[in-house]
Amino acid sequence: MHADPVATSADSIPVAPVSGTIRGKQFAIATALYFIDRRPGYEHVDIKLSAGKSAQHCSSPIPDDAMSIWLRRTGSEQLDAETVHIASDRRSSWEVHYQVKDNGQWLGNSKADALFVLQPRAADQRMSGELSACFADETKSYVLGTFVADYCPISIDAPIRGMDIMEPPAARDHARLPSPEVGGLANVEAP
Question: Which of 19, 146, 147, 181 has its Cβ near the most Cβ atoms within 10 Å?
Answer without folding.
Answer: 147
